[in-house]
Amino acid sequence: ATIAPVKTILDLEVDAFRKVVDLNLFGTVLPTMAFVDVMAKNKKGVIVNFCSESALRPLTRVVGYGSAKAAIANYTRYMATELATKFSPELRVNAIVPGFLLTNQNRALLTNPDGSYTDRAKTIIAHTPCGRFAEPEELFGTIHYLISDASSFVTGALSVVDGGFDAFSI
């Protein structure tokens, strides 16, 4: 569900879009539903969804992924209210919003065959005040906070961990 730089939204493959939305959105909704019943009975629990920078700022070329992640942001906030008001205020739902990590999934978009950065990767880094991609381990502190009692009054939050990308302005 990506759109090549020389193509337009009119070239979007709807089946590919549907597949990406199904994977990312329902890959969050279905596991949540599997655990909510037990959590509601216990009247306590925490869910941390994985969102994306593309949920906050539409990024070129990845319309399917961005749309699904924007839906997860909305779903997170909906579920935070739903669970706290209808089951228990000790049921919390938040999301971590990672910035850019260099992963196998996006390696072809961000690196050339020789391992150097693509123009897209260089643009991302130029718009990230920390000046680099995140390391997966840098998400652990925020996740730990969100699942701990230190955040017992935090629900419906989108916790951005992006090296300043979302704050950057030109």
Automatic annotation (TrEMBL):
Pfam family, one: adh_short_C2
GO molecular function, one term: oxidoreductase activity
InterPro entries registered for this protein in UniProt: NAD(P)-bd_dom_sf, SDR_fam
Sorted UniProt keywords: Oxidoreductase
Domain of life: Bacteria
PANTHER family reported in the protein's UniProt record: DEHYDROGENASES, SHORT CHAIN (PTHR24321), ESTRADIOL 17-BETA-DEHYDROGENASE 8-RELATED (PTHR24321:SF8)
Family membership: Belongs to the short-chain dehydrogenases/reductases (SDR) family.
Protein name as annotated: SDR family oxidoreductase
Species of the source: Bacteroides uniformis
